[in-house]
Amino acid sequence: MSEAFEAVLGHAFNRPTLLKEALTHSSVVHKNGRRQGSNERLEFIGDRVLGLAIAEWLAERFPQEQEGDLGPRLAHLVSEPVLAKVAESIGLPDAISVGRGEIKSGLTKRAAVLADALEAALGALYLDGGFELARDFVRRAWNDAMTEQVIPPKDAKSALQQWAQKRGYDLPTYRITSRLGPSHAPEFTVTVTVGSSEAAGTAGNRRAAEQRAAEALLQRLSS
Q1: Is 47 a catalytic residue?
Q2: Catalytic pick among 21, 47, 128, 215
Q3: Is 199 helix (H, G, I), strand (E, B) or coil?
Q4: 156-222: what fold?
Q5: Where are the chain's structural domains?
Q6: Where does residue 180 fall: left (phi above 0), alpha (psi -120 to 50 degrees), or beta otherwise?
Q7: Nearest CA to 130 among 36, 7, 45?
Q8: What is the rounded CA–CA span in Å between residue 27 and residue 19?
Q9: Catalytic one of 21, 43, 116, 119
Q10: Per-residue pLDDT, 205
Q11: How far apart are CA 29 and CA 13, in angstroms?
C-alpha cells in the first residue's frame, strides 16, 4: 500500500522505509511490544514542515495582511478537522497500518489518527525529497482549503473569549472532564464554562477538544 501511496505524494522514495514508518500507527508498535517504528517521530517533523509551508503560502497569497489575520488563517489550515479532510481526499485512511485489534474499531476514520498520519507522511516526504517537494504536495493537497478562505477565519476559542469580554464575563475556563482510550489512541473530553453556561467537546488531543467545546458553547449561546 505504501508503494501505491507514493503516487499520491508525487515522489518515488529513495528510502521507502520512511513512508512505511509514516503510515504505521502506534497500535502496531504496541502490539508487537516495540517502542520504535510508529509514525510519531515523523509526525513531529511533518507538523513543522506543514506550518512553514502554509505560512509561506499565506504570506504570498495575502501580501497586505499582518500577523493578526495570517495567524488565524494558519491555525485553521493546520487544524485537525482540515488535516482529516485532506487525508480523506487523498485516500490516506486505506493506507494506514493499524494493529489487528483496531481494524474493526474504525481507528483509521478518527480525525486525530488521520491528521497525525498526514503530518507523518509529510515529514517522510521532506526527509526523503526536501522542502520543495513537500511544499509542492502541500499546495496540491491543501488547495481547496486555501482557496475557500475569503476572509480570515476566527478560531472558536478566540471568538468565545471575545463574546465573554464584550458581555462582562470572566474569561472562559477549560477543564478535562474525561480521558478515555489507550495511550496510542486517546480521546479527551473538555468542558468549557462561561458564566453559568457550559458545553463539552471531544477529540484526540486536548487542544482540539477545547476548540470543539468552544464551538459547541458558541452555538448554544447564539441559539
Answers
A1: yes
A2: 47
A3: strand
A4: Double Stranded RNA Binding Domain (3.30.160)
A5: 2-147, 156-222
A6: beta
A7: 45
A8: 17
A9: 119
A10: 87
A11: 23
Residue 204's identity, in one-letter code, is G
pTM of the model: 0.72
Neighbouring residues of 55: CB distance < 8 A, sequence distance ≥ 6: 70, 74
Cβ atoms within 10 Å of 53's Cβ, excluding its own? 23
Grid cell 458545553 is found at 199
Whole-angstrom distance, CA of residue 138 vs CA of residue 146: 10
Distance between CA atoms of residues 18 and 8, nearest Å: 15
Q: Whole-number mean pLDDT of the chain?
A: 88
pLDDT digits (tens, 9 = 90+) for 146-164: 998 777 777 788 888 888 8
The grid coordinates of residue 179 equal: 480521558
Asked if the model's pLDDT at residue 2 lies above 70, the reply is: no
The DSSP code for 169 is P
- Scanning the structure block, which residue is given the C-alpha cell 481547496? 144
Residues constituting the chain:
223
Query: Is 91 within 8 Å of 2 (Cβ atoms)?
Result: no
CATH number, span 2-147: 1.10.1520.10
> Is the pLDDT assigned to residue 181 strictly greater than 60?
yes
Q: Are residues 48 and 120 in contact, defined by beta-carbon separation less than 8 angstroms?
A: no
DSSP 3-state of 29: helix
Q: Which of 39, 110, 42 is nearest to 81 (CA)?
A: 110
Residue type at 198 in one-letter notation: E
